[in-house]
Amino acid sequence: MSQDTDGGAIPALAEEHRMVRDLVAKFVERDLMPLEAAVLKRESEGGKYGLTEAEEAPLLAKCRELGLVGLDVPEEYGGADLPVSALMAIEEEMGRTVTPFIFPPDSPNLHMLLAVANAEQRTKYLDPYARGEMRSSIAISEPGAGGDPAGMTTRAVKDGDDWVINGRKIWVSGVPRADFIILMARTGEGKRQEGVTAFIVERGTPGFIIEREIPMIGGRRTYELVFEDCRVHERQILGQLGAGYAPMQLRLNVRRLQMGARCTGMARRALEMMCEQAKNRVTFGVKLADRQAIQWWIAEAATKIHITRLMVRDAAAKMTAGQDVRTEASMLKVYATEMAQEVLDNAMQTFGAMGMTKELPLQLMANQVRVQRIYEGPTEVHRMAIARRMLKERG
């Protein structure tokens, strides 16, 4: 099955972008996959899921050597300015490994900063972030509110030239290594997106407290944050006062497309492993590859991976053209995560008892996909949003 075969009007990747994707595929196979055994062993023994400094440093150096830093960063900031479609093809390749590594910078927050950062913020935060010299995270969800912005209670109150922030955030990723976080807080009285403002809060700001670390399935860790009279200057407002929801939505759309691409990569890896096991494993005198149940799993997986890839490319092309892709992003978030979970489960079943071990990457991928059905909006919320838009359009 060709990765470059498209249907309808969905554009295929340009040759130069295929070359970058192929370079990333080689990086994944030669540099990241060999680290999987050590990563899986540490995680299975109760250690943190991640790379050691000794493992990560050579990877970052190799990335810079290969030009794999700032891939979708605009040229004016020293990046390659790849379109969303090319970036998603790269994300698919990265999804094939459980070695946790990201080409800096993390794209969703980059796109939010590019959209609304002012000149001072571009110099202080965006420039070093685009070069991979700073890390960031974003704090949106709150205890008891989840994915519903109407439940957001963290509030910022004006005090002279400062804003004083009080409240809690939860399920925030990457906090200990972040140089700054993008914090969503209420500054107005709107019920949903109205009155929500984005603030840049630097690590070490008084009143910014990491309350606790929360271990998640799939090896991930998130954090609960507390803000107690956390004072930031009005220069730290990201974008317009009371208008933080729209750029946050842009950031979420990028992340949802990214998740779709990563799920495609994980499902590809599972399908590859399933096919290899089916060709080699014999039960009751018959190869698994000759059993109809396994054949149907393989056929379904190949078909659904192809569908998901086309969905990613369609949404990416529309996003590049400046179209509203909220519906496409929601559809992709739902379909890709459920597709990957099904393919991974069937691959684990094909391996039998071996598929239940922590020696294979399948179990870690399966748990990571299970988490993805919750974060960046639960599946049920996305289905509700899709239905509402369809009904409104046909009203």
From TrEMBL:
Domain Acyl-CoA dehydrogenase/oxidase C-terminal, chain residue ranges per copy: 243-391
SUPFAM superfamilies: Acyl-CoA dehydrogenase C-terminal domain-like, Acyl-CoA dehydrogenase NM domain-like
Residue ranges of every copy of the Acyl-CoA dehydrogenase/oxidase N-terminal domain listed in the record: 15-133
Coiled coil feature spans: none
Annotated Acyl-CoA oxidase/dehydrogenase middle domain residues: 138-230
Cofactor requirement: FAD
Entries under InterPro entries matching the protein: Acyl-CoA_dehydrogenase (IPR050741), Acyl-CoA_Oxase/DH_mid-dom (IPR006091), Acyl-CoA_Oxase/DH_mid-dom_sf (IPR046373), AcylCo_DH-like_C (IPR036250), AcylCo_DH/oxidase_C (IPR009075), AcylCoA_DH/ox_N (IPR013786), AcylCoA_DH/ox_N_sf (IPR037069), AcylCoA_DH/oxidase_NM_dom_sf (IPR009100)
Keywords: FAD, Flavoprotein, Oxidoreductase
Family per similarity comment: Belongs to the acyl-CoA dehydrogenase family.
The name this protein goes by in its record: Acyl-CoA dehydrogenase family protein
